[in-house]
Design a protein that fits this description.
The chain has 684 residues and is an alpha/beta fold. The chain has 20 helices and 26 strands.
Length: 684
């Protein structure tokens, strides 16, 4: 590293009203081993005197950027008025603004290149200005591990640029220009200290990761620890803690901060048709091949992992709709879009995007696939129904299967190599033979390379050459379920021994189940399977990605289960029924079914333990308990269903009342919007 290379590069985006703020900013800027790059919106024929003005108010060297110029510490570089500017390998590169009719998003362009080139050493500062330039840029900087600062929009006349940046939820500090240099100086020093901190914070990081896992639960234990440590230290500093052990104590007392920290880990950057050339390759080489291979009436299935706010999923849906054309009625399109960030999934499900977020969509596609709403562009119902948004954790949950295309872009780079290998195996398992895998530019599927054929090396498009790989499905766990409120469960002093005991207990239980020749299933209060012991294929229907026990039971068992479950729940005692006849292949067998309410730490939590055992007794040697009579149990089952329907009707009536009240509020809100719109037009 050259002695003149800056520790960090601070990019400042400004437009209307920004000159005074820049002067204020640089009056307080010290000589601290960083460099500053100013990206402004100026007319091409404007004669800028910014170099002269700032030189009077700063002890740094101020100059206009030139083609190929290397950036150095304690220097300020200004973008020429008629150029776009990017940075690569610490050098500045300029291009002409060729088309004066289109908006020149100079801030976005530079910040995106800065994030790519400098990563965690990038700092984005958004000062006052009109429009939304810089919004996508701050996302890129934050995703790369950098820091984002915006001036307080409430104290400036031109608040659009900082307000739009703040709306992304990725701004670390909202402050006045005169306090920004001090914040930057402290941040840079913390980053330097971080590099020198070594492993002394490993234990605190591990405790914080466990704390997050216990409360939410989200497991970051296999993510890259350098990234996790940097973001933990940043949140600690934001809350004025210099030591991680103090911040850990603060987290234990403030559950809201745990959620905020986890959200910082989950920062995701996406866009419609992100990396346009990659989508052109999908449109040209991938989707036509998939559509050609479809049999009449066959589904077109795709999976977008880490979908964030949904732009990538909707992009694929648009391409599929266009390429299917008139055949769209013949083939149902199902795009599974998954993430562990529920807030992002909620946003994606609404399908409403601000104009700044749709800038990469052609006008033709905007007109065809979106409607204009007061909040922005809304995805049309025919496109929305193609996409299924779902919470899914790649680390824990099993993969979606039989996919024609799986997209997993820029997600694995935050995970360690062992976890990456596991997830690559999952993705391969989820693909059909001749299915396609779409990865991010920094990801390399070395562990499954022998199974893949390269379609586009630059944009990481691969084709699955083999049939299903031999992957043990036991590797993938069902979502963790907390028994009771997380805050009420004390943290064990020796977590390592607790985990070891749990593993031993599981092994003992599985051995007992095998010896007893039965299947034991633990379910929660909504009949979702939490844990199984034994061979599920003996008594349950084999369905992929179904966790509701009632959907996995053969009909006679479902009738018996529903009946005795209701009794067990009401009477809080063990209920059983014997000699339930089901088909096992060509053979009819008898099954004894037992349902036991589960007690955990002295409390009942609505969880049940369901035991299935084949009845091999003869005649009067049948086991104790009620013998299954389908007619009697069917009558009881019908009564239980009628009671359930009655309760659902009551809940539906109550929901309708709430809905009517919401509709009234919405109507009132709509009238206020119409009124505000009239006022805005008058103001214009």
């Amino acid at each position: 590293m050259d002695i003149n290379d800056p520790h960090h590069i601070i990019a400042i985006g400004a437009s209307a009203g920004g000159i005074e703020e820049l002067i204020t900013f640089f009056e307080f800027t010290p000589l601290d081993g960083v460099c500053y790059i100013i990206v402004q919106h100026l007319s091409a024929d404007f004669k800028s005197r910014m170099v002269e003005l700032l030189s009077r108010h700063s002890q740094l060297t101020v100059q206009e950027a030139e083609e190929g110029m290397q950036v150095k510490s304690n220097q300020v570089y200004l973008i020429p008025v008629d150029k776009f500017m990017t940075i690569r390998s610490n050098r500045l590169y300029l291009t002409d603004k060729s088309d004066v009719r289109i908006p020149h998003l100079t801030v976005n362009k530079f910040l995106t290149s800065l994030a790519s080139d400098c990563g965690a050493k990038a700092v984005a500062v958004i000062l006052s200005g009109l429009g939304n330039d810089g919004t996508d840029g701050v996302k890129a900087v934050k995703k790369a591990g950098g820091m984002v600062i915006a001036r307080n929009p409430e104290t400036t006349e031109f608040a659009s640029m900082p307000s739009n940046a703040i709306s992304t939820g990725m701004v670390d500090f909202i402050i006045e220009p005169e306090t920004m240099p001090q914040v930057i100086q402290e941040y840079v020093q913390r980053e330097i200290d971080l590099l020198a901190s070594g492993i002394k914070d490993d234990q605190n990081v591990a405790d914080i990761v466990r704390l997050i896992n216990k409360q939410l639960p989200l497991d970051f234990s296999d993510y890259r620890q350098t990234t996790i440590l940097r973001r933990i230290k940043r949140r600690a500093a934001f809350n004025n803690f210099g030591r991680l052990e103090d911040y850990l104590g603060f987290l234990k007392e403030n559950p809201d901060e745990i959620e905020t920290l986890a959200k910082d880990f989950l920062i995701s950057v996406t866009a419609f048709f992100r990396d346009n050339e990659a989508y052109e390759s999908i449109e040209r080489d991938v989707l036509p091949a998939i559509i050609k291979s479809l049999e009449p009436g066959q589904e077109l299935r795709m999976w977008v992992t880490g979908c964030a706010t949904g732009e990538e999923a909707y992009s694929l849906a648009m391409l599929a709709s266009e390429l299917l054309g008139d055949k769209i009625q013949e083939h149902e399109v199902k795009i599974f879009a998954t993430d562990i960030d529920n807030a992002a999934l909620f946003f994606a499900g609404k399908g409403i995007y601000m104009p700044a977020l749709t800038s990469t969509i052609s006008q033709e596609r905007l007109k065809r696939f979106f409607t204009i709403e007061p909040e922005g562009y809304k995805v049309k119902p025919e496109l929305r129904k193609m996409v299924i948004f779902s919470h899914h954790d790649l680390v824990k949950n099993p993969p979606f299967c039989n996919m024609h295309l799986i997209s997993c872009r820029n997600l694995l780079i935050y995970m360690n190599p062992v976890l990456q290998k596991k997830i690559y195996q999952m993705l391969l398992f989820g693909l059909k033979k001749d299915g396609f895998l779409f990865l991010g530019s920094s990801e390399n599927p070395i562990s499954i390379a022998e199974n893949l054929e390269v379609v586009n090396k630059k944009w990481k498009l691969y084709k699955n050459k083999d049939v299903k790989p031999n992957v043990n499905f036991d590797t993938f766990l069902l979502p963790q379920v907390a028994l009771g409120k997380p805050g009420n469960v004390a943290q064990p002093a020796q977590q390592v021994f607790k985990n070891a005991d749990k593993t031993l207990a599981d092994a003992v239980n599985e051995t007992l189940v095998k010896d007893l020749d039965c299947l034991v299933v633990c379910i929660d209060d909504k009949n979702k399977i939490v844990k199984t012991y034994g061979d599920t294929s003996r008594f349950l229907l084999q369905k992929i990605l179904v966790t509701d026990l009632t959907e996995l039971l053969p009909e006679p068992l479902a009738i018996a289960f529903k009946t005795i479950t209701s009794q067990a729940d009401t009477e809080q005692k063990i209920m059983s029924v014997n000699e339930v006849k089901i088909k096992q292949g060509e053979q009819v067998i008898k099954v004894n079914l037992t349902v036991s309410p589960m007690v955990f730490k002295g409390r009942r939590n609505g969880f049940l333990v369901v035991t299935f055992m084949q009845d091999k007794s003869i005649g009067s040697q049948a086991g104790s308990g009620n013998v299954f009579d389908e007619k009697v149990y069917l009558d009881q089952y019908t009564q239980a269903l009628e009671q359930e329907v009655s309760e659902l009707k009551e809940k539906l009536a109550a929901s309708n009342e709430k809905l009517f009240a919401l509709e009234e509020n919405l109507q009132s809100f709509n009238e206020e919007l119409l009124s505000a719109n009239e006022e805005m037009q008058s103001s214009n």
